[in-house]
Structure formats: C-alpha cells, structure tokens
Amino acid sequence: MGEKPDVWQGTLALMVLRTLETMGPQHGYGLARRIEQTSGDRLELNYGTLYPTLLKLEQEGCIRSQWGSSENNRRAKFYELTKSGQRRLRKATQQWEQATEILARFLGDTGKA
Amino acid sequence: MNRLRAFCIRLFNTLRGAHGDDFADELETHLALDTERGVRNGLSPEEARRQALIRCGGIAQAQDTYAERRGLPWLESFLSDLRYCARSLLRNRTVTVVAILSIGLGLGANTTIFSMVSRFVLRPPPVGDPGTLLSLHILHEGDRCCNQFPWPVYTDVRSQAAVFSGVAAYFDLIPASISGGSEPERVWGQGVTPNFFRVAELPMVMGAGFSDSDSDKPVVVLSERLWRRRFNGDRSIIGSTVILSGHTFTVTGIAPAAFHSIDQIIDAEFWVPLGLTPQLAANLPPRDSRDYHWLSVIGRVRPGVTRNEVAAQLSTIAARLAASYPATDKGNHFVFEQAGSLPPFVRRMTLLFLSALSIVVLLLLAIAGFNVANLLFAQAINRQREMAVRLALGATRGRLLRLLLMESLLLGLAGGAMGALLSLWSTAALSSLRMPAPIPLDLRVDIDGRTLAYTFLLSVLCGLFLGLAPAWAASRPGIANALKGETGFAAPGRRLSARNLLVVAQIAMALILLSVNGLFLRSLQSASRIDIGFDTRGVFLLSVDPRLNGYSPAKISAFLAQLRERAAALPGVQMAVCTDVAPLSGGNRSDTFSVSGHSGKGDPSSPADLYMVTPGYFDALGMPRLEGRDFSHETATGPRVAVVNKVFADRLFGSANPIGQRVDGGGSTYQIVGVVGNVKSRTIGEDTRAVLYRSLDQSIANDPSMMGYTLIVRTRGNPSGIADALRREVHRLDPAMAVYNLETMDEHVRAAYVLPRVAAMLFGVFGGIGLVLATVGLYGVMNFAVARRTREIGIRMALGAQPAAVLRIVLRRGMALTLAAMALGWPAAWMLAKIASSFLYGIAPHDAATFTLVPILLALVALVAVWIPARRAASINPTQALRME
User: Fold this and answer.
1) Which residues in chain B have their CB less than 8 angstroms from residue A61's CB?
2) Contact: A61, B5; criterion CB under 8 Å
3) Nearest CA of chain A to the CA of B20: how many Å?
4) What CATH number corresponds to the domain at position A53?
5) Could you tell me the residue ranges of all domains in chain B?
6) What is the pLDDT of residues B752-761, one digit of tens each?
7) Model-level pTM?
8) DSSP string covering B784-832
9) B333: which strand partners?
C-alpha cells in the first residue's frame, strides 16, 4: 500500500470534476472506483476523504446531487456537474497545464545541466 | 463568489442543527457497493465488508470529517458553549436576575451620564468637516475669558488671515414675531454674514441659501423645524415671502433640522443677513466701532494648515491691529477652539458637574460590580464540584475558563442592554426639563452611537471583571476534595479574604456616594430655605414684544398702559404691573454704576442688574419698600429716577442716606427716589446682587428690552385660571401680537430651582441605589459566612457557647468589615466633597451634618444587614448542625 502515492492536496476536486464531465452523473462509489481506474490503479484513494470533497464542491455550487437508483437497484446519491462546475474545471485545467509545463521546463533544464 | 456561497450554506447548516443529514445513508450505500465488489472478487461477505470499512477509513471518522465540512466547527463549538452558558445562567435564575439588575442599574446610570458628556463635550456640530472649523474669540490681557468681535476687527481678520479659506460672523440671537397663517408666534434667529453657511459647509435642504450679494437684501433661511411646524413643509416656500416682525423677507433656503446653532446650545430657527439685522434687533452697536464686541466669528482652516500656524498668524494680526489702533485694540489677543465646543463661560462649570457625576456613576457601577462579583463568588464555590467533575472528565482548564468568562460576559451584555433601555427613559426625562432661561436653548440629550459604544465597552469590561471570581475559583485544583463535596473555601480565614475585600470596597464606596448625595440633599434643603425676596403666591406672568410688531417706543408705552388697565379690570385681579424681564429668569441687563461725579479709581462702584418697572411693581411682588417712595407718574422725557435695592445702597453709599443722590451707569444719570429689599435677581444660588429699578416709560426709547415686556398680575386665589382672559385682552388690543411665557410665578420660580433639583435628584437616586446594593452585598457575605460555619457554630454551642456569644462573634466580624470600610471611605468622601462644592448652594462642602450622619446611617443599615444572619447563627440547633452532611 505504501508504494502507491496519496492524492495530492487540491487535486482530488479536479479529478472529481473531470470524471463527472466525462462520465456524466455518478454516485460516490462509482466516482471513487473510476478515479482509481483512470489512474491505472496507481492512486490509493481514501474513500472517507472523497465525500467531504464532494460536499465542498456542492456547497460551492460546482456540482449538484440527487438521490436515484444504482445499477443493481440500490438507493444512491448521484452527483452531476453544473455550469459553474464546468467553468471551474476549464480554469483549473488551464492552470494545471501551465503549472506542469513550467515545472517540466525546470526539471528539463536541470536534466540538461 | 463560490466561497461565499459555501460559507453561507455552512452557516445555515450550523444554525439549522443536524436535521436533514443523509450522509449516513450515502455512506451505507457506498459500503454495500464496495462489499458487493469484494464478494464478486471471491471474498467472504464478512471479509469484504471489513476491507470496505478499511478503505473508507472507518465509519465514525468518515462521518466526523464530513460533519466538519458540513457546518462551521468553530461556530458550532461557540454556539454550544453559548447554549451551555445560557442554561447554566437559567439554572441559577435568582443570581442571574439579581446580577443583571445590579449591573443594569449601574450601566444605565453610566449610559445616562455619558450621553450628557457625549452631547455637551464630545459631539461636533452638524457642519461639514467640524475638525477644521474654528470659533474665534478676543481675549483681553488680564481677563479670565473671552469676548466677541467688533465688526471692523472681523473684517480685518477676514481679509488678513490667509490660514482661513473663509471667515464668517454672526449675531447670536434675534427675536422676531412670525405671522401669517395661525396665531402669531415669537421665534428666535441669528444675523449672519452671507458666507456663513458656506464657511460652515452646511448644505441647504432646499433652495440655494445666501449668495454674496445678499448682505443687505431682505432674504431669510428658515430652519427645517420651523418650516415643517409653521408651513407644513410646503415645498413652494422657496422664493415666496414670510413676515418677520412686520418686515417682508424672501425665503431662499431651508437649513437642515439637525442644525440649531454653531455653539449647539442656542436654538435658532431662522437666519437673516447681518445687514438686515437692525430691522429686527433694537440698538445694535454701530458697525464702524471697534469698541463694541457683539459678533461671534467662525473660520474655516485651509487644508493642510496646522493649529500652530493658525495661532501664529492670528497673533501676528493681533500685534498689527494693536499697533494700528492702540486706543481700542491694545492688549487684545485672538484665541480659538474647535467650533461647537461649549461656550467658554459655561465650560468650566459644565465639565466639573459632568466629571463629578461621572465619578459618582462609576462608583455606583463599581459597587454593583463588586456586589455581583460577590454573588458569583458564592456561586462559584458551590459550583466547585461541577468544575471538578468536568476537569476529571477531561475538560481542559482553558476551556472551563472560556466557558466561565463567556457566562460572565453574557451577564455583562445583558446588563448593558438593560442599562441602555433604562437610559432611553432617563434621557427622555432629562430632555423634558425646562431650563430657567429667557432665551431658547436646545439641551436635548439622546442616546447616540458614541454612547452605545461606550455602554458596550463598559458591559464587556464588567463581564470580564465578573468573570475573574469564578475563574479564580475554577483555577483552584483540589479535584479529589471537590469531588468528595468538600470545598477549599469552607474553612474560615484567609481564603475568604477576597470576598471580605470586595465587601469593604463596596461599603467604602457607598459611604463616598452617600456623603456626596447627602451634601446635595442638604444643598437643596438650604436652597428651598433661600429667601428669594418676593411673594410668588397669586402672581401670574405673561410676555409680549410689541417692538417686533413695529411699535414705536411711545406706542409700546401706550399699549402696555392699556394692557395694565384692562388686566386690572378683570375679575379677581388686584394689581397689574409691567417689567421687562421677571426676576429669576437666568440672566439680565447689567451695567456698572458709580456715584455721580465720583467715577475715578478708588471711588465706590458696583455692577448692578437693571430692571424696568411701572408704579406698583414692588407692592405687586410684595417687596418691602425700605426708604423713599415708589415710582409715580414719571414722563418719558422727565428727569430720570430710580429705585435701588439694599445691596446697591450699601455698596455705593454705605451708611449715608441714598435718597436724592445721583448715580451714573449705562450712559445715563439717575436720581434715587427709593430703596427696596433685596431679591434674587438671576438665579437661586447667586450671592445677592445690586439691582437698580428704573422707570419703564423712561427707558423704552433709548434702551429697549431684547426680551420683550412682561405683564405681572396679582390675583386673589389661584392665578392660573386667568391665562385665557389675559390672552384675550392682548388680542383685543392687537390680534397680531404674539403672547409667550404664560405661567404662574410659582411655575416660574420652580423652573429656577431646576438645576439644584436635578442635581439632587440624580445624586439622590444614585446614592439610594448604591446604599441598597452595598447593604445587600454585606448581608450576602455575612449570610454566606454563617451558612458555611453552621457546623463550627454547632460545635461551639455543643461545647457550651451561649447564643449571645455566638451573636457577638458574627456581629463583631460584620461590623469590623463595616468599620474598616468607613476608615477607607471617609477621607475619600472628604476629598471628593471639594469637587462637589462648586455646585452647592449656601452650604460648606465639609458640611458637619452630612459627614456625621451618613456614617451613622450606613453603620445602622450595616448593623441590620449583619444582625439577621447573626440571629440565625445564634438560633442554630447544635444537634441538627452536627448531624448535617
């Protein structure tokens, strides 16, 4: 377990938003599984931290939730991206791309030197 | 934006509590789905669920982190503390109510007094940027205080002082009768230079106000109050005309209602250009004279100019003027203060009075605070067990302190709220008092933001102070003992000394308070014994000012004579006479008099108040005529005669006979024809003044009264019934004549007593509250001590102590506290009396009666407060006391 990296601070929200954008409405467990799968099972997600993140995003108006039925007929809460969430995702994606690009240049430079 | 939204939702969730929380369901679904996957992967259901639980980090933990995000954790813990405190306060309801009442009374008194400080000392006038508006005065070398400006000096300063962006002058007070519409009314206004409102930066509510070319035009600015009262807020008034004392003025502006005058004391309701003032005010000084000081001056300091620069430039100008006009301006300096400060001549007195009151109410608050602290102390001792349990269960000491502090802060704030409510009532009562002054004053006091902030601050300080006692008690550990129900305070001796100190302080302060209170009551008592020198019974007063209706002096004389004749003919009327201003009206005309031909240095001279009277005046007021005769049929142009009072005669003539002598003063020479008894002329508390009575008919022409003329009617029986008949007679003579100051002489004199009465009332009420609080405090402490020592007393009595001996022990202890308090309080009261002495009428500040009676009274009250618990101690049944616990 120890060899799998934890989710970086603040990136979980971005992963949640992106996952909801590609998959559409999804319940908490489904999201958690999907995030793990997307990472190629390289991320170890503490499911307990996922729900406060979802709550925060909902409080901020980026997602909304609704009770519904899951694939095997369990009552589950489904989360869905809002307009504001889409905007937030676009902005955050840009910022991340910029940040990784800059970091990559640094790391690349040290590599050359 | 998103963050704010999230904050609001969390705040809402916190306030709503735990309702509608469906996270448990959601988590359960999550675990079920995860378990199913485990089972699909071949695990046993138990193992699958165990792993699912591990992956989500435990149900309780997940719910905790979720709950933290759901609401605002800090607010939640704050609210739960608050709920706990409120519960605990409600549980000890009696203590809470007594505490809030005590603190509320103390804070109410402080709020009331501070509202006066705020109104008279701190509040800037409602002008633009009050910090840069200065009031200027002239100070002559050697004088204590200051003088107003002659016109030429004003224009010199205006043209030469570059530190000011504008300088304006105004004449304080002009009476006018305003007619049109309903019954004519007398109103007061000011004459101002046209730049007045611009220099003051006072924007008009409506209209443009004055322009520079208005200095000699018949235009007027009305106050919003007058406009609403008399013109029903008619918006078409701008540009239309109003009649002031028979002259037509065009209204050019409405000044805001909040503005009364620059000095915030005089209550002016209209403003006319200074050039038009002579139409309304009689005998104004000549404009070109540098001798007559009659104008108030304000200056607007240019941005960035410091007070020092202002002072430097003004002293340069003063030196220049002294050189150019040595006869009039030598020795004159300019002084200034922020506009709206109390007028210099009342400042010292007002500040003293307010500081004495402030000291008294702070003492009162301290007594109340010590009282409540004592109560809470007793309570804290009883709550030691609760504290010990909480500590034993793992509460940190810091959290306990926070809780206790919050509890006492709640008490303080509740007391503050009650105090604010009390002071709403008390300031309304103070504002409704009528002052003994013939001119309109705006002395209303109300609770402003500054006062509320002060009350809030005091409440918080009180709360913190009250928290000290319980916090101290909670900080004593001794958990083990406390859990067993023993308290560290039970034993008599050292530990109780903190409470004893509180009681001693309380009684000492009560002694100070009561001494001051006693002095004031004694002062009122002696004020009511003061011989005012005339008989008020059956006398009715009414004033008119015919000059405002354009009457010539001769016509005024005739009008008043007719009015006297008609009034005397009314049934029940014995006499009707006239004067300018009734005695005890707060102020009067005065001049310096000397014996004719002896006006040099060293010759006797005396300032004397001047009254105009008609024949019969002295008899109508029951004043004894000592020598000579009354006025009879003096003609306006005949030789001037005067009647003087005893003090006047003594000062100028000593033992010589004054009758037939001539005196000079105020530009005239009078022959003395009679001497009458002394009266109080301006105020109840004054040292008897010299008074010169002159003939009304001989004085109207060259020295008309600014205050109008007063008809004095002596009736048989109750005088108040005559009011309507008199008013009718005035209107029969002239329907346009405004009638004012209708009152009986008793009412008039009662108003003159208002200051000593208010002072005595304030100090009396505060003293009474202080006495009750201190007594309750002493009783509480002794009662508590007896209750704690029940067992000890039981043992003593079982061993043979007599009830009388027990009584003595308790009494001795209580009285020892009282005596210690008196030893501290008495000297302090003695010193404080010196401050209070400035307001005392006819009584020495170290009045023997007060300083012996108050300690005796306090000792007696204390004896009662100690006696009751002592009796209880003496009646303790030893067997029962020992069986207790």
Assistant:
1) 2, 5-6
2) yes
3) 13
4) 1.10.10.10
5) 2-71, 130-339, 346-529+755-883, 546-737
6) 777 777 777 7
7) 0.72
8) HHHHHTHHHHHHHHHTT--HHHHHHHHHHHHHHHHHHHHHHHHHHHHHH
9) B139
